[in-house]
Amino acid sequence: MSTSMHSNSIEVIPAGPTLTFLGTGAGCGVPAFFCNCAACEEARRDPRARRGDCGVIVRNTETTLIDTPPDLRHQLERESARHIDRVLWTHCHFDHLGGLGELEYMVRLSAMENLPCFSSPAAREGILAEFHYMDDILAFHDLAPFDAVSFDGVRYTALPVTHAPGTYGYLMETDRGRTFYASDTGRLPAETAERVRGCDTIIMDATFWGRNWSPNAHHSVRECIEEGLELEAGTLYLTHLAMHYDTPITLAELEAYLAPYEGRVKVAADGLSIPI
What we know:
alpha/beta; Metallo-beta-lactamase, Chain A
């Protein structure tokens, strides 16, 4: 058994694989250093409302990292993650990739063996273009759409989503249930949607409050909730939250908006751990 601190309470996490949110914000985070909107000012006052760029770790006896956000070093230290056994990427945009350089020191100075890496071929090309000086220590394995890999009690299936070419969400299956993580996506492609229908937990892009500037690549909060409920998610977590696109919304206002869903729809939070 382990515990997770969140919202001034202690939640007991059953033994077995857990997913921890490293970051739950869209590209510029919350607060954004250049923004004085109500959501960013709330985050400056209240640590609960702060959001780093999106990534998660899955821990059982090992630690699997999904994405390498720019805040990675601080996020891993916050979660007492002392070693990364492998990395899976959803895609190669900066807010999901920029922290990869932080792992160079772990590999060269501590692990002393190449780091297993998994992504689409398109993401691999983008990653190695940006971090060409690490190509000698990254052991890449290409994942085609719907490929599955298993490690440490979790089966990961790479499912195409609606975003940049080669972007995946990951369906994670364990002895306890099914969890789908898609931090960047618009409405899911039909085959992906059918694969994740009825998942115990869906964690999905909810970038925009109000107008969706980019409907072919992201959800609004409302669109995420509509699709998540259509897919019969047991629990739906909203992530990749900008909080200040297009109209700012505070965490307090968003939690009030979700109250009618009686816990079925939740706001993901940096540092929150859930069993999977």
